[in-house]
Structure to design on (282 residues):
């Protein structure tokens, strides 16, 4: 199980890029942390989610 | 009559305490984007006596900014960096101001921001916000980031909150209300988010978060 924004999800084994695409995220607007470390966008496709990972997906919306 | 530095400092100490005021005075904080969030954050931090503020924006003051940004009608057309420096000098004459009239890009993040202890992300474009957050966290390992997402529209003020996501990363906002969908930016709600960001900065400087645990919600 992988903890994503506080929810346990059975997505271990898939890549971060696949998870984000499947969940409908626009990656250009995201900052993603894996176990407290930022994941660079170029690394999303190589990042394989593993059991016990904690992922924070921050979605930026417009306005400031 | 402008008060002397000593009078200024004593007044701050009376209201904020000596220890916290000293920590604010030693700090360098960068504010990226000087719109509704950034101009307000800058004013609040200058009032609190933060020692140095890096003020970064490429844009000029427009009429549609005046309802929520800390500029005057007479400053329309001026660079936001210059106009905000003028206004803050009148409010808080002893804060050192470093204006940078540039657009923040992946290639200048490091050189622009490396001397800051804390970076406030106060941009408006979501892709630029995400880019800045990522570059700061990747390239500046000793810097704290206080970012923002979601303060548009007329929703409740209380929906805006501060979250610490990891050791160096705080996020303020409701996380959802996008100006492209809400169609409006309202002074009071944007100011709530700006105050959350400024307050997170001051709490980081006073090391309040260290004693209160990591994943707190405030």
């Amino acid at each position: 199980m992988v903890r994503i924004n506080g929810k346990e999800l059975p997505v271990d084994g898939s890549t971060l890029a696949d998870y984000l695409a499947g969940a409908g995220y626009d990656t250009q607007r995201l900052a993603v942390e894996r176990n407290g470390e930022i994941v660079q966008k170029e690394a999303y496709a190589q990042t394989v989610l593993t059991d016990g990972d904690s992922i924070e997906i921050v979605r930026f919306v417009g306005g400031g | 009559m402008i008060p002397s530095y000593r009078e200024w400092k004593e007044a701050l100490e009376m209201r904020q305490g000596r220890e916290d005021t000293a920590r604010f005075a030693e700090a360098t904080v960068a504010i990226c984007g000087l719109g509704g969030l950034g101009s307000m954050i800058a004013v609040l931090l200058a009032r609190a006596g933060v020692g140095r503020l890096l003020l970064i924006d490429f844009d000029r003051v427009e009429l549609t900014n005046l309802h929520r940004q800390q500029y005057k009608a007479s400053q329309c057309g001026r660079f936001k960096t210059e106009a905000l420096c003028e206004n803050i000098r009148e409010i808080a004459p002893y804060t050192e101001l470093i204006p940078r009239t540039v657009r923040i890009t992946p290639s200048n993040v490091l050189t622009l921001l490396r001397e800051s202890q804390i970076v406030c992300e106060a941009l408006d474009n979501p892709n630029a916000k995400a880019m800045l957050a990522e570059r700061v966290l990747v390239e500046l390992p000793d810097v704290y980031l206080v970012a923002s997402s979601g303060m548009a529209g007329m929703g409740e003020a209380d929906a805006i909150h501060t979250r610490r996501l990891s050791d160096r990363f705080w996020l303020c906002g409701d996380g959802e209300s996008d100006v492209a969908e809400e169609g409006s930016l309202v002074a009071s709600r944007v100011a709530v988010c700006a105050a959350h960001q400024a307050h997170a900065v001051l709490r980081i400087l006073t090391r309040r978060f260290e004693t209160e645990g990591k994943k707190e919600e405030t």
